Amino acid sequence: MSTTWREIYRKIVHVALSLLLFAPFYFKLPPPLNPYSYYSLGLFLAAFINSVVVKKDKLTLEINALRDELHRFAESIGDIAKMPISILEEILTDFHSFVEKQLSLLERDYEKREGYVGLLYGIIGATSSLLVDPSHAFYGIVALAVVDVLASMSSLLIWNKGKTMGGEAIAFLSFAIILMSLGVPVLQSILVSAVATLSEYFSPEDNLTVPFFTTIAAFILKLPERHPL
């Protein structure tokens, strides 16, 4: 898969996961879930996925060892009994290949060494925003879903580069327009969008900082409150 399509795939997954973070703002969660427990579950799953990526090589060795053990066991028994074990071995192989392919598509270069931190940091940023100010965290999550995606994809598709000032400008204008469409006054929209864009451009991990600093800016500038249901 080319670098461009790989990045497009990553951003599609990024947007899809970001949309899940909006659920408490549009739907009443079934008990015993509430916005905080919902985000906590997301945080746990993100940390678990990250741990799988970090230990992927070890997991690969363990799956291969189990598959070899099944193969040796199958060789020691009759042909009739071999069939279900062969099926299980094939399922293990297919599952391992699928997981490894998906993780490989989602990982950035440094994440191959340090784990899939993008997902983990995104959930941490969103959860921190909700804990600090639940009435303005919505804007931070919108920024998480929009700013990085637009900045990266426009830079890649138009200028064939990573981060560019042109891509950041497109992200800035787009997020400001989205805020205005949500009923935020023009000046506040511009200022909050500037904070989100600067957080994306200068941060070593934008998934962590963009939602948090956008939420803080929305609180300071007194944007219309949008509480979880």
UniProtKB/TrEMBL annotation:
Q: Which residues form a coiled coil?
A: 49-76
Instruction: Respond yes or no to whether keyword Coiled coil is given for this record.
Output: yes
Transmembrane among keywords: yes
Keywords attached to this Swiss-Prot or TrEMBL record, sorted alphabetically, are: Coiled coil, Membrane, Transmembrane, Transmembrane helix
Residue ranges spanning the membrane: these are: 12-30, 36-54, 115-132, 138-159, 171-196
What's the protein called, per UniProt? Phosphatidate cytidylyltransferase
